[in-house]
Design goal:
Immunoglobulin-like; eight-stranded mixed beta sheet; elongated; CarboxyPept-like_regulatory; FN3_sf
């Protein structure tokens, strides 16, 4: 190579020596094409030595003569645009071949553009503006080794330095022509070189040469042996993406991304040689590792597995295996035990199937291939304790549960030594239905394990189904309330049939149907009765409701009974039943009595004011009537506001009555009402009633009745025979300063308390006195309306009324002063009801009191004390309390120390009786004895004739009247009224 280079240099030198001389001429201009004058033009060799100097003329021309073609620099200096500063530019001149060299005629335009050079050749080429061809290089050479790379290139004569580029970036600028460094494997590196001289001229970049450094070869190779499988492992190689495996010189694994490799399925008892090479990310393979040898083990065959039947255990056996030191047993893929022998047994639940595998274990503790999979189980036993019981269309089979059985097969045995599959069940019992009544059936059972394999059969068991129901009627009876053996008009009874089931099976939803054998509509009979279950050998009673119409006739009536049930059994022959009916006796409707009432509590008819006439419609005949119609023909002498002229009543039994209220108004002093009464048989009777205005008539509670069979009735009322205190109520003037409370109870919710007769009447009459005699309006009464606090006060009513702080009475008193301007109020209270002594203290019995619960009763002591607290109100002038108490146990007061508590001087109490006594009835006057005397005293107790009844006058009258009247009442006991209070001059009633 050195010889060739020397020869070429000598050849070029000889050519230059022999070259002809040439001249360099040219014109230098600026960018406006104007000549640059007096520019210094110097010819330099490559060592920058001056060879010739010239300057341009006024036309910018210059000439350098008699030079040999060679490598030169042409240096141009001239006065630049800035005065006093020279601009210098260097142009490169290169020789051509000897035959092609010729003189140069240059056309130079200065200044030269930035990043541009001017290179000319004596061969006539140029200018070249981007490089100097003399400085062009051949591509560099690359050398690689593990994780290392080296770059080298030619060293040329004209180059002063070289620039090396790595992946496009400059990494070295030096005069040496070599570069090397460590690099990561798996990454490509590309290089270019460019030559430079000392004056800014450069050659072109070489072409790009690329390569990468391989990784280190794998190290620490190891081999592990498992039967005929060899496993290689090695250390991680930096930069390796995968590995290639070579066995006996051939690649057997490629792209392995771990540091291990398993080579299975090799020949047993043979040597193998392995090597490993690393692959980087550019798939460049490293050198192979050192070789390593691996030897496979000798072959140990798998055992052949089978089993032996046993009633309680699973017994496995297998053959002897050469080279086997022991055997591993697996059950259902899980290791069980290692044994030295060729058999294995274990106890398992019957019917539980398991699959086993045996593996031989050699001297290296390596397992052979698995044996054949052998599945076995302990067979389940035949069911025991089988019983068969006959039922209704059913046979019940029961047996003992079998260990290991998940279900059971039931077999029917229609013949001896013959079984037919019937059904599979999951529990150790079954009810087989439906089966025909009275037939025998036989069955056997087998257990079924989880795999569907069955056990041996149980013993056959036989039984008979119960016989069918058998209906019969043992007895028939007519049940009717009168007990006369007949169905009377409007009488409700029952037709009772005693039904018997003589079969072994019950009958369900037994439907009995009763059909009449005649077509009369006068008797109504239920047609169907259903007995839910008719138990064998038991009598059930079926009762059909029967009712005769009011118009039923006397006759014999027959019915036919049939029976069916869900099981399809019927009564073999219909059962015939016969009864008799009796016709009704006729009714007789009359108006037995009448009464007059109005909103004022009086019993007369004012002119042109509406009142209520109450007529008592009574049946005095011997028969019932289903209804009655009362008609009032139109009349010019009276009117019935809001009344349609006709009213229909419910049915009325013999002796019973029905009261009818009719609004009435008249202007006539006397007038007649013609009542038309029609019964259900359309029989109409007329009764005329003559009435007068302002005449006193009966109170509705005073109306009377007639006896059944009475011939006639006279509706004229003798007012002289009326109760005196009810009819002789004095009239007083309006009293805005009064307030009255009426509390009366006749009927109690707890049936243990007796009815307090006349109590309602007492309250009504007292109300009439407060309105008429005392001149009080409804708003001055409590309750304000008769229908309020109906039936008497409850415990809450008493508490809410007399609460001295928030009660209704206090609220009314305050409102009277606030809204009506009433400064002083006189309060009158009348209480009529039962009382009870409890542990030596008296209690009032409210309407809703419980006989056995004392907390439901109202303490008289509390009642009086609440009034005393309330009386401190300045607007209360007086409180007068009339206590008309009938004690249920007056003797319990004996020995009691209780007395009325001290009260405010405004309060006076007039009690119907003293302690240990009780208020009693006055049947003749239909009032309590105390109230009758009290009312009598109000109407005639004014002893001094001043038309003012004072408390002292009233008390004296009552004190005298009660004992006097008591003597004429049979079966009475002592009763002495008592006054508690000192204000005897208190005005009770002012009739002035």
């Amino acid at each position: 190579m050195k010889v060739r280079t020397t020869i070429c240099a000598l050849f070029i030198l000889l050519a230059i020596i022999k070259a002809e001389e040439v001249a360099i001429t040219g014109v230098i201009q600026d960018t406006t094409n104007a000549p640059i004058k007096k520019a210094a033009v110097t010819l330099l060799n490559l060592r920058n030595a001056v060879l010739a100097e010239e300057s341009t003329n006024r036309k910018g021309e210059f000439t350098i003569k008699d030079i040999e073609p060679d490598y030169y620099y042409l240096l141009v200096k001239y006065e630049g645009q800035v005065p006093g500063e020279k601009e210098t530019y260097r142009i490169k001149l290169n020789p051509g071949s000897m035959k092609k060299n010729k003189s140069l005629d240059l056309q130079l335009m200065l200044p030269i553009e930035k990043n541009t050079v001017l290179v000319y050749s004596f061969a006539g080429t140029g200018p070249i503006t981007d490089h100097d061809p003399v400085l062009n290089l051949n591509p560099p050479a690359l050398e690689t080794s593990p994780e290392h790379i080296a770059v080298s290139w030619e060293d040329i004569q004209h180059a002063a330095s070289y620039v090396l580029f790595e992946n496009g970036a400059e990494i070295q600028r030096d005069s040496v022509n070599r570069y090397e460094r460590d690099v990561p494997s798996g990454k490509e590196f590309c290089y270019e070189v460019q030559a430079l001289d000392d004056f800014g001229f450069s050659g072109l970049r070489t072409g790009m040469i690329c390569n990468s450094a391989p990784t280190q070869k794998p190290r620490d190779i190891q081999v592990k042996v498992a039967k005929n499988t060899l496993t290689l492992t090695w250390s991680v190689v930096h930069g390796a993406e995968s590995y290639n495996i070579y066995r006996d010189g051939e690649r057997v694994g490629a792209g392995i991304d771990t540091t291990s490799f398993t080579d299975p399925g090799l020949e047993y008892n043979r040597d193998y040689i392995y090597a490993v090479a690393a692959m980087d990310s550019l798939e460049k393979e490293s050198k192979k590792s050192i070789e390593i040898k691996g030897t496979t083990h000798e072959f140990v065959p798998a055992p052949i597995l089978s089993s032996v039947k046993d009633e309680t255990e699973l017994v496995l056996i297998w053959n002897e295996v050469e080279l086997a030191k022991s055997f591993n047993i697996y059950r259902d893929d899980e290791f069980v035990v290692n044994v030295q022998s060729t058999s294995f047994s274990e106890t398992r639940p019957p019917g539980e199937k398991h699959c086993y595998v045996a593996k031989a274990v050699d001297q290296y503790n390596e397992e052979s291939d698995p044996s054949n999979t052998h599945c076995a189980k302990v067979e389940i036993k035949a069911p025991t304790g089988v019983t068969a019981d006959g039922g209704v269309n059913t046979i019940y089979l029961n047996w003992n549960a079998v260990v290991g059985a998940v279900s059971y097969n039931v077999y029917q045995a229609p013949k001896e030594d013959s079984l037919v599959y019937f059904q599979n069940v999951n529990i150790p019992h079954i009810a087989i239905d439906p089966l025909p009544y009275g037939e025998e059936f036989c069955y056997a059972i087998s257990g079924v394990d989880p795999d569907g394999d069955r056990s041996e059969y149980s013993q056959v068991r036989c039984t008979t189904v119960l016989t069918a129901p058998d209906f019969s009627i043992h007895k028939f009876a007519l049940i009717e309330p009168s007990g006369n053996g007949y169905v009377d008009p409007r009488e409700k009874g029952k037709l009772q049939f005693a039904v018997h089931n003589s079969g072994q099976s019950p009958a369900h939803s037994v439907e009995l149907t009763l059909s009449p054998l005649d077509t009369t509509g006068e008797v109504f009979v239920a047609t169907t009765v259903v007995i839910d279950t008719l138990i064998p050998d038991k009598i059930e009673f079926a009762e059909f409701d029967i009712e005769a119409a009011l118009t039923v006739e006397t006759a014999e009536r027959s019915y036919e009974l049939t029976m069916t049930c869900n099981e399809g059994i019927i009564l073999e022959e219909p059962y015939k039943a016969t009864i008799e009916t009796k016709e009704a006796k006729p009714a007789k409707l009359i108006i037995a009595d009448f009464a007059i009432s109005n909103d004022f509590g009086t019993h007369y008819i004012p002119e042109s004011e509406e009142v209520l006439i109450t007529i008592r419609l009574q049946n005095i005949g011997e028969g019932n009537t289903e209804y009655a119609v009362v008609d009032i023909p139109d009349s010019a002498t009276f009117s019935t506001p809001g009344f349609a002229g006709s009213i229909t009543t419910p049915g009325i039994a013999p002796g019973d009555y029905f009261d009818v209220e009719i609004p009435l108004m008249s202007k006539e002093q006397s007038f007649i009402i013609d009542f038309q009464v029609t019964d259900y048989l359309d029989v109409t009777t007329s009764q005329k009633l003559e009435l007068d205005l302002l005449k006193h008539y009966l109170h509705p509670e005073d109306m009377t009745t007639l006896s059944v069979g009475a011939d006639s009735v006279d509706l004229a009322q003798d007012t002289d025979s009326a109760i005196d205190v009810d009819s002789n109520i004095p009239f007083g003037r309006k009293n805005p300063q009064g307030m009255a409370i009426i509390l009366s109870t006749e009927h109690y919710e707890d049936g243990n308390y007796p009815r307090l007769e006349y109590a309602d009447r007492d309250g009504i009459t007292m109300r009439e006195y407060f309105q008429s005699a005392f001149g009080l309006s409804d708003y001055q009464l409590l309750p304000s309306k008769p229908w309020q606090m109906e039936g008497g006060p409850t415990l809450n009513d008493l508490i809410n009324t007399f609460d001295p702080h928030q009660g209704d009475l206090r609220r009314r008193i305050v409102n009277s002063k606030k809204y009506s301007g009433v400064e002083e109020i006189d309060i009158l209270i009348y209480y009529r009801g039962l009382g009870e002594w409890i542990e030596g203290e008296p209690y009032l019995v409210p309407k809703d009191a419980k006989f056995t619960r004392d907390v439901t009763k109202f303490s008289l002591d509390r009642f009086v004390k609440d009034l005393s607290i309330l009386s401190v109100l300045s607007s209360i002038q007086s409180v007068t309390l009339f206590l008309d108490i009938t004690f249920t146990n007056p003797k319990e007061a004996a020995g009691s120390l209780w007395e009325f508590p001290e009260v405010n001087e405004k309060i006076c109490i007039l009690s119907a009786s003293s302690k240990g006594e009780s208020s009693q009835l006055y049947p003749l006057k239909k009032h309590s004895l105390f109230l009758y005397s009290l009312l009598k005293g109000l109407s005639s107790g004014d002893e001094d004739g001043d038309a003012v009844v004072e408390l002292g006058e009233l008390t004296d009258f009552v004190y005298k009247s009660v004992p006097q009247e008591l003597r004429g009442i049979p079966n009475t006991s002592r009763q002495n009224p008592a006054l508690y209070g000192l204000d005897l001059k208190r005005t009770i009633l002012n009739l002035r």
